[in-house]
Amino acid sequence: SKFVVGLTGGIGSGKTTVANLFAAEGVCLVDADVVAREVVAPGTYGLNAIIDHFGTEILTASGELDRAKLRQRVFSDEQARQWLNQLLHPMIRQEMLLQVKNATSDYVIMVVPLLFENGLDRLVNRTLVVDISPELQISRTVKRDNVDATQVNNIIESQCSRSEKLARADDIIDNQGEISTLKQEVQALHQRYLQLSGNHNA
Ligand code: ATP
């Protein structure tokens, strides 16, 4: 089986930035957010099941899943939320494993924002946490999304804490400095992961 590194980190920590640096080294990415959209794309079993359960009112005018409406719909309905999670979580897990299997690089980076929170660390051989201070998480996210700091802080507080993530990480990448420094850190980790995947597949 293929060697899989689970890449995680809090909101605005730099997961996408780090993942793209690994991709530039030729490493295949499997992105949980992308997969979560793929399994409910128009025409899929996933979207059809959701329409059967919630009705066509959770669709946009163009027939795509209206994620905001669906979120609203399950927000105050614990049973609906459970139903939805029981539908989606196995499909997402299965599709991620399929993409890992089909990947052509020596190892794969699986990008999962809630890796520890959702227990997906069980699917990977090694975990890599992108680490920055909560202050930087807030300032970078505010700048990127044009949202207010309180909103970002609420999300930070809903996620697994910085100290817990660091305690559970096999590897940590510090993203508090320049992108050029980050790139060097990624290149060093890439060499290490090539070595580990070589042993894994031997
Ligand atoms: P989210 O979980 O919110 O989707 P993320 O973990 O994928 O976020 P990125 O989108 O990669 O994080 O980074 C957050 C923002 O910070 C982006 O605008 C990115 O360009 C910027 N950024 C990332 N790394 C650095 C850095 N070392 N220096 C300055 N800005 C950075």
TrEMBL record:
<keyword id="KW-0547">Nucleotide-binding</keyword>
<keyword id="KW-0173">Coenzyme A biosynthesis</keyword>
<comment type="pathway">
    <text>Cofactor biosynthesis; coenzyme A biosynthesis; CoA from (R)-pantothenate: step 5/5.</text>
</comment>
<protein>
    <recommendedName>
        <fullName>Dephospho-CoA kinase</fullName>
        <ecNumber>2.7.1.24</ecNumber>
    </recommendedName>
</protein>
<dbReference type="GO" id="GO:0005737">
    <property type="term" value="C:cytoplasm"/>
</dbReference>
<keyword id="KW-0067">ATP-binding</keyword>
<dbReference type="Pfam" id="PF01121">
    <property type="entry name" value="CoaE"/>
</dbReference>
<keyword id="KW-0808">Transferase</keyword>
<comment type="function">
    <text>Catalyzes the phosphorylation of the 3'-hydroxyl group of dephosphocoenzyme A to form coenzyme A.</text>
</comment>
<dbReference type="InterPro" id="IPR001977">
    <property type="entry name" value="Depp_CoAkinase"/>
</dbReference>
<dbReference type="GO" id="GO:0015937">
    <property type="term" value="P:coenzyme A biosynthetic process"/>
</dbReference>
<keyword id="KW-0963">Cytoplasm</keyword>
<feature type="binding site">
    <location>
        <begin position="12"/>
        <end position="17"/>
    </location>
    <ligand>
        <name>ATP</name>
    </ligand>
</feature>
<comment type="similarity">
    <text>Belongs to the CoaE family.</text>
</comment>
<dbReference type="GO" id="GO:0004140">
    <property type="term" value="F:dephospho-CoA kinase activity"/>
</dbReference>
<dbReference type="GO" id="GO:0005524">
    <property type="term" value="F:ATP binding"/>
</dbReference>
<keyword id="KW-0418">Kinase</keyword>
<dbReference type="InterPro" id="IPR027417">
    <property type="entry name" value="P-loop_NTPase"/>
</dbReference>
